[in-house]
Design a protein that fits this description.
homodimer; 411 residues; 5-stranded mixed sheet; ligase (chains A, B); Pro-tRNA_synthetase (chains A, B); EC 6.1.1.15 (chains A, B)
Chain lengths: 411, 411
């Protein structure tokens, strides 16, 4: 992509009303635009990142055995009344349409997926089954001041699994933990499994937490036995670990995923049973598993940035290479254009800064945008047919022969 | 994919309250599930089709020069008040949130994209620019009885282009027609460009219409000069073509896309101007271009089906090959399993009917689901190491050597 044609521009202006680092950097770099509090438009660079995260999530959910579906955001009131959550969920957006029909905008989809799966499951032979979607959720958050970390509209992957008994659910639940850790690792996040409040039927749910100073959550971390707890379930705020007795420390943290053993909470509400081998009706056991791709995007920015800008992991960078032509020497521009074409042809995702702006602005913007590799072509390197290569996460500069560049990045 | 594990089942039951053929077949085949009038869940087979259509649309929009973005569905009232459409659009879903903040669910996105693009365009050098999104729209349709043809929530591709003057807009508008015809051709639809009512600034808009008996629109078709008109703009209902004077015929039709020269209608409302070469402020000219991928999916079913079921074009079939094992002979099952593995390994998208059901049901379901190629393995063909191949759109049956099958479909 030629940067002169790219929709979305960098700006030095710090956005008003944005206190979070992720919103500040994503807006300043032209990755997203703020429509209103908690509601963002993804510009081309930001959308590329979001799609890469979604693709990673999709791959790991498929490996886990999930089948992708796509449920609506517009959902009928009746389903929410059946579970009492029409009144219980305070962030539920409600609306009314033609014929006084009442709807909720899905803030989560247990109320839709449970009766849906019920339609296709009769016997024990139809279980287990796991379905997931990557879809936009709506939550009327009172405070939406954390950029992509807490949106009123945001991207969510929600998987739901259905089982014959608690053992099968527990087994799948354990497997899901590994799938989740894989997702976060691939996204460059060091996520920790943390016990959190569980709801009606299970003692705990589990959260995936990334320890970082800008986090809103507080986690009691036991570095001895490795079992961590969210502040919300810590009794008497004790620093002594309830499992091994050693001292714990408190870490600030961002929640990037959570999983719940819902057991029969929703299947009972929708009268969802199956016939076992003996012909007897049995309750279906259910779990739910959430990751917010947009929240992951915000979290990665919170964790991976410096005072110059963002530092994208390769796996989710919008482009791998930022090719920057410095100066207005015709030969430099021609050489850069030719290298750009060669990189594109070799399948290397390249952003080419061909804009008519000062060198300083180009270098600052490259730092702000934070692609993994920066290649600089200037009159200084031109004669020797070299290009300067610098990784965003390192200060070392290497000189590379232009003829060898595209091979370096071809996998 | 093994059909025994596939989420979503075929049914012989004709869905209640569905009068359209597309909804009947898509529900009976397990491609979609109806949540309520005009609101559907995409099950795995249906979602695969929808994504293939979206991918075709995306490719053609990129070729046209569009850059993909993603705008929110939740939009602030103010933007709609500025254009007077808060009151004018009768299908707008409106809702209220925390702090009495009022929102509309996007039924279209001129009100969002115009101020967005304004932020990044100052000078003539920033024009032209075209952005598009593939995103879900919401419309509170009074009658939502046409399946995927008229949804209350539906998939939409909306592209918006911005230009320095009317000539540049007109030039892009003409190019968009070809991009649209490419999309429909690739989706197996024979679309015709039809003049329709234009709105404020341009005499006509243009619709892309597929002539078919189940269509809701009536088109005055001139087979002499090729200029067709929507009934809504035909003066005195005359069958005489206003362009060439020859007789026209009337065709029932489904609208699958539409394009508008909006000119300055929205840019004026948002005070969106640019500075020309002489330093003078000029109004920005705008066009908008819509295709509904979910509507395309419904239209293809309306056009491509017979009394046994759907007939998917290769380009959007959820799988290319339906491998069907008949009978419960262990050898047949082993051979089918081995061929399935080989097809998968060769990259052939294959649905393998490994279910323990009667041959008749398998064959009926294969016709209903409508994949392009059906391969049958049975004890009849087993000994000779043959497989029966039949195309969904033909009645001819061919015998193919099993060893040669996977090569047939590898591109």
């Amino acid at each position: 992509m030629k940067q002169s044609k790219l929709f979305g521009k960098t700006t030095k202006e710090i956005p008003k009303d944005e206190v979070s680092k992720n919103a500040e950097l994503l807006i300043r770099s032209g990755f997203v635009d703020k429509l209103m509090a908690g509601v963002y438009t993804y510009l081309p660079l930001g959308l590329r990142v979001l799609k890469k995260i979604q693709a990673i999530v999709r791959e790991e959910m498929e490996t886990l055995g999930g089948q992708e579906i796509y449920m609506p955001a517009l959902t009928p009131k009746d389903n929410w009344v059946k579970t009492s959550r029409w009144d219980e969920i305070d962030v539920l957006f409600k609306l009314q349409g033609t014929g006084d029909k009442e709807y909720a905008l899905g803030s989560t989809h247990e109320e839709i997926v449970t009766p849906l799966v019920k339609k296709f499951v009769n016997s024990y032979k139809d279980l287990p089954v796991a379905v997931y979607q990557i879809q936009d959720k709506f939550r009327d958050e009172a405070r939406a001041k954390s950029g992509l970390l807490r949106g009123r509209e945001f991207s969510m992957k929600d998987l739901y699994s259905f089982h014959r008994n608690e053992e099968d659910l527990a087994d799948f639940y354990e497997k899901s933990k590994q799938a989740y850790l894989n997702v976060f690792k691939r996204c460059g996040l060091d996520a920790h499994i943390v016990e959190a409040s569980g709801g009606v039927f299970s003692k705990f749910s589990h959260e995936f937490q990334v320890f970082t100073e800008s986090g809103e959550d507080k986690i009691y971390v036991c570095n001895s036995c490795g079992r961590h707890q969210n502040e919300e379930i810590v009794e008497n705020q004790t620093l002594k670990c309830p499992y091994c007795g050693n001292d714990r420390i408190i870490e600030k943290s961002i929640e990037v995923g959570n999983i719940f053993e819902l057991k029969t909470k929703f299947t009972t509400a929708f009268d969802f049973t199956y016939t076992d081998e003996a012909g007897k009706e049995q309750p279906v056991q259910m779990g739910c598993y959430g990751i917010g791709p947009s929240r992951v995007m915000g979290s990665v920015v919170e964790v991976h940035h410096d005072d110059k800008g963002m530092i994208w992991p390769e796996s989710m960078a919008p482009y791998q290479v930022h090719l920057v032509a410095l100066g207005d020497d015709e030969k430099v521009l021609a050489q850069a254009e030719s290298l750009y074409q060669e990189l594109i042809k070799s399948g290397v995702e390249t952003l080419f800064d061909d804009r008519e702006v000062q060198a300083g602005q180009k270098l600052n913007d490259a730092d702000l945008i934070g692609l993994p590799i920066r290649l600089i072509i200037s009159s200084k390197t031109l004669d020797k047919n070299f290009v300067e290569m610098k990784k965003r996460n390192s200060s070392e500069v290497e000189l590379i022969k232009i003829a060898k560049v595209s091979k370096l990045f071809t996998k």
